[in-house]
Design goal:
Strand order of the largest sheet: 13-10-14-15-23-22-21-18-19
CATH topology of the largest domain: Rossmann fold
CATH superfamily of the largest domain: P-loop containing nucleotide triphosphate hydrolases
CATH architecture of the largest domain: 3-Layer(aba) Sandwich
Structural class: alpha/beta
Strand content: 15-25%
Largest sheet: 9 strands, mixed
Number of helices: 20
Bound molecules: glutamine
Number of strands: 23
Helix content: 25-40%
């Protein structure tokens, strides 16, 4: 019998329940007891990864150290667990089918008919098992993306059912569902949740715990918990409240109050009391609650609006990294979304003059970005702390070339392929990939080392000569322009160890308090309990 334990977390009633945060918080409270948890996100679409999905539809693409372009939930897991995950922590329908079909072509099945059951379900089960073994985990928590009852998801629910059949002692099913409070009734209704559990039952799965998600700060009352327990076939104690919290980092404590991790471990025949250390989480929550002074940070870019809503999920890691750094100074982050086109329409000062700092995050091939250039110029000229992330670094190099070095037609070939001054141009090996239409998973991805120049802002921030950060780009600073930008005062403070890629640019401290652009994505490595050094240095300057 396998020693490894498995937990499957499914969702129902609506999407966007925060299942990822639920999984991350449960995993964190289990790890606080000395167990090793490997979380896995399962996305039920045919894409191999999240790399070429439209971020407006799917949210942020989170990049792992080993260069996988994953769903943003992997970011939640990393932030809550304080550890780096890998490509094995992410599975999609596309990956599963591709492996099975590739094997079929290689005569692996020896002439047998290859079928969804058992071949596809076996592949799913094997991937989950090998994740646990590869990462020497005690428990694997697999988050089933989407909702129960969607036709395309059924194969994964079937695999989850078979798992329990194979290891009845070692597998738990947890179902998270929405509890609406319709405004005209003013009362919490449990029927949609009951029906969601019924859909799960139809797939042969009986939940061990039912988690109610809802939009208020209170616990589910006794009456409704009893009702949920009765109709969902669980005990009163197995109904868990997951209310809206003012910060997601309170969820671990909310689960602790209900002894959730303890109950889960008990059901898995693991001792819940091996050791319990919730101190880092309690300290974090105290720090967040004590955070008083407001720090206003503007995020200037595109991609923000879908209809009349701001889609903050596209930059979730940037937002979280800013929060982590602000809290470390007991500051309260106030994030302003500044749309490039609004800047063009209404003028840059209107949006930027009251800010403590400005961030330009990553982006791809967008047009109508003149507003972003204006924001960068405003930050540079008015000495407002500036942090450019990836595209934000590239655009700051162009802004400097145009407005300081006199290269007024400087541009990136991503937007203007015919520019005579390609300050940013495509990396040589990337060119061929695009010509061959090799788009998926082919950017410069994942962790790469970068050497820092002594005496610079970033060297002080990191306190190190060599750092490792995660990347996701096809274009780079064109070294032909290095000398001229340097002549006008730009410092190239970070370069790749392999080759000559400019990784960081900054302005001298006597010219500007903090003007830094990085070709990588430091936001992916910031954790609430360990804020990122570069974001800390930036927020430190914002506070002055
Ligand atoms: N579009 C730019 C590139 O591909 C920047 C990418 C990014 O911001 N992640 O190089």
């Amino acid at each position: 019998m396998s020693k490894l334990k498995y937990i499957f977390v499914s969702g129902g009633v609506i999407s966007g329940l925060g299942k990822g945060v639920t999984v991350a918080a449960l995993a964190a409270t289990i790890e606080a007891r000395g167990y090793r948890v490997s979380p896995m996100k399962i996305d039920m679409y045919l894409n191999i990864d999240a790399g070429i999905l439209n971020p407006k539809e799917h949210g942020e693409v989170f990049v792992t150290d080993d260069g996988m372009e994953t769903d943003q939930d992997i970011g939640n897991y990393e932030r809550f667990l304080g550890k780096s995950l890998s490509r094995s922590n992410y599975m999609t329908t596309g990956q599963v089918y591709k492996s099975v079909i590739d094997r079929e072509r290689a005569f692996y099945y020896g002439g047998k008919t290859v079928e969804v059951i058992p071949h596809v379900t076996d592949e799913i089960i094997n991937r989950i098992k090998s994740l646990g073994e590869e990462q020497a985990a005690d428990i694997v928590i697999a988050e089933l993306g989407g909702s129960v009852g969607e036709y395309q998801n059924d194969i994964f629910f079937e695999a989850a059912r078979l798992f329990k059949l194979e290891y009845p002692e070692n597998v738990l099913h947890i179902h998270v569902a929405y509890l609406p409070v319709p405004a005209h009734l003013g009362e919490m209704k449990t029927k949609p949740l009951q029906q969601s559990v019924r859909l799960l039952n139809e797939r042969g799965i009986r939940p061990d715990f039912v988690i109610g998600r809802y939009d208020s700060g209170f616990a589910i009352d006794e009456q409704r918990r009893k009702k949920i327990a009765l109709y969902c076939n669980v005990t009163f104690e197995e109904v868990i409240s997951n209310p809206n919290a003012d910060t997601i980092y309170k969820i671990p404590s909310i689960f602790e109050e209900q002894r959730f991790a303890e109950k889960v471990l008990y059901k898995l025949n693991l001792s819940p009391f091996k050791s319990v250390n919730m101190k880092p989480w309690n300290d974090l929550v105290n720090r967040i609650e004590q955070s008083g002074k407001n720090i206003k940070i503007g995020l200037a870019g595109k991609y923000f609006k879908v209809g009349s809503y701001v889609l903050s999920d596209v930059y979730i890691s940037v937002i979280e990294a800013l929060k982590h750094a602000c809290w470390s100074y007991e500051g309260n982050p106030e994030i302003e979304w500044i749309d490039s086109e609004d800047i063009e329409k209404y003028g840059v000062a209107k949006y930027l003059k009251d800010l403590n700092g400005i961030v330009v995050p990553g982006g791809f091939g967008e047009t109508k970005i003149d507003g972003i250039y204006e924001a960068i110029r405003y930050a540079r000229e008015n000495k407002i702390p500036y942090l450019g992330l990836c595209y934000g670094m590239q655009l700051s190099a162009i802004e400097f070339a145009r407005n300081v070095c006199g290269l007024s037609d400087g541009d990136t070939t991503e937007i203007n392929p015919l520019t005579i001054n390609p300050i940013i141009h495509i990396m040589p090996e990337q060119d061929k990939k695009l010509l061959n239409k090799e788009y998926g998973g082919t950017m410069r991805l994942g962790k790469w080392n970068c050497l820092l120049k002594e005496g610079t802002l970033v060297h002080k921030a990191y306190g190190s000569d060599c750092i490792s950060e995660r990347h996701r780009h096809r274009y780079e600073f064109n070294n032909t322009y290095r000398e001229i930008l340097e002549k006008y005062g730009m410092i190239f403070s970070g370069t790749s160890t392999h080759g000559n890629i400019i990784e960081i640019l900054e302005l001298p401290e006597d010219k500007h308090p903090f003007f830094v652009g990085v070709q990588f994505h430091p936001e992916f490595k910031s954790r609430p309990i360990a804020p990122h050094p570069l974001f800390k240095a930036f927020i430190g300057k914002c506070l002055q």
